[in-house]
Amino acid sequence: MNATTTPLAAPDKLPQELVDATTFLLKRLGFAAKERALAAYEETGLHPYHHAVLLVLDEGSRETQGSIADALGYDRGQLVGLLDDLEERALVERQRDPNDRRRHLVHLTSDGKRMLKRLRALAARLEDDFLGPLDDEERAALHGLLHRLAQVHEPRCAPPRA
Hints:
The protein contains 7 helices and 2 strands, in the order αααααββαα. It has helices at about 15-20, 20-40, 50-60, 65-70, 75-90, 110-130, 135-155, and strands at about 90-95, 100-110.
C-alpha cells in the first residue's frame, strides 16, 4: 500500500452515513428483532403470524376468516394456510356459518388459549431481551415516539386518538 492509498473500513463496520440515518437504524433493528423472534417461535412450531391470528381470535370481535385477514392486513389465501396449520394443531376450530354457508367461523379451542398464553410469555421475553439496554422510562419514550410515527405512516398500529 502506498502513501496515497487509504485502508478499507473494517468489514464489520458500516459506513457512518448509514449509521447516522435513523430510518436505516429502524430497518436494521427491525430485521434483528424479526430474526430473533423467528428463531424463538420456531421452537414452538408456530410463526409470529400464527400468534397474531390467535390474538385476534382471543379479542373476540372477529370470527370470520375474512374479518381476521382484514384485521391483520393478511392476504385471505395466506390466512387460510395459517388457519389450516392452527386447525391441524387443534388450536382453532372452523365451522360453516349457519347464516351464510359461504363463510367460515373461527374460534379458539382450549388448547389454543393455552398456546396463546405461552406465546404471550414468549413475546414478552423477546421484548424484554431486545429492549434490555433501555430503562423503563426510555422504553416508554421510545414506544410513544413509535406511536407518533405510526399515526402518520401506519395508522393501524397507532393508538386511538384521545
